[in-house]
Amino acid sequence: MEAIIFGATICIQLNIIVLFVIIFIWLNEEWTTPNIIFLSSVILTIFGYLVYCAKEPNTMHKLTKDIRTVLIFLTFGYILSPVLKTLTETISTDTIYVMTILMFLTHLIFSKYGSLQISLSDSLSITSSIFGSLMLASRLASPSHAFSLLTVAVQCFVLLPFLMYKLSNKIFISSFLTFSSLYFLLFVSQTISYVFIVSIVFLHFICPCWYVQCQRYKDNIYGPWDEAVITS
């Protein structure tokens, strides 16, 4: 059961990336507006913050500091969004997409699936995801599109892991996100949807089964050990 829960944790991270890419596609294809994405992310962020406060009662005394941090991010993010269009003008779109895929793969590999203690891998995971998000945002039509996508990126890759760590029912969360991702993927491509289903089944069920079966070959070597003798 623990192996399946760990597989669900990995699937949650994969679903977050897929949903983020879907939001980019919807913005890029003008299937939705930046205002809708921004308002939706604000509502979900407030809801997630309330859930986090319920799980972590000592958080409420930092409310003023958290609000100040959010205002600083929104201000500087909105001001610097027009700069994104000039950062990657000399880079082709295909190169941007390849770099984004590599960054999200790095994020998926080095994400913390256990304790939230800060480490090198955790910093690499966050940095790669934000860098990939910046690459995608630079290909959107306007600064408002880029700003809304960056807001979602911070929500998905910086804030959401703290909330996920506090929630216990990983299998239910993974199932909900999987069905949500699959629903929106069907609007994009059926082929990608099939690949996504295979990936989820592989990570959620096949890999945990392999892990459990491999435990029979595990061998612990115990002492006593011969003491080292120094020869002249």
TrEMBL record:
UniProtKB keywords: Glycosyltransferase, GPI-anchor biosynthesis, Membrane, Transferase, Transmembrane, Transmembrane helix
Segments crossing the lipid bilayer: 5-27, 33-54, 66-84, 96-113, 146-164, 171-188, 194-212
Pfam families: GPI2
Keyword Transmembrane helix: yes
Cellular component terms per the entry's GO annotation: glycosylphosphatidylinositol-N-acetylglucosaminyltransferase (GPI-GnT) complex
Pathway membership: Glycolipid biosynthesis; glycosylphosphatidylinositol-anchor biosynthesis
Any one biological process term the GO annotation gives: GPI anchor biosynthetic process
A GO molecular-function annotation: glycosyltransferase activity
Subcellular location: Membrane
Membrane topology note: Multi-pass membrane protein
Family assignment from sequence similarity: Belongs to the PIGC family.
Protein name in UniProt: Phosphatidylinositol N-acetylglucosaminyltransferase subunit C
Organism: Dufourea novaeangliae (Sweat bee)
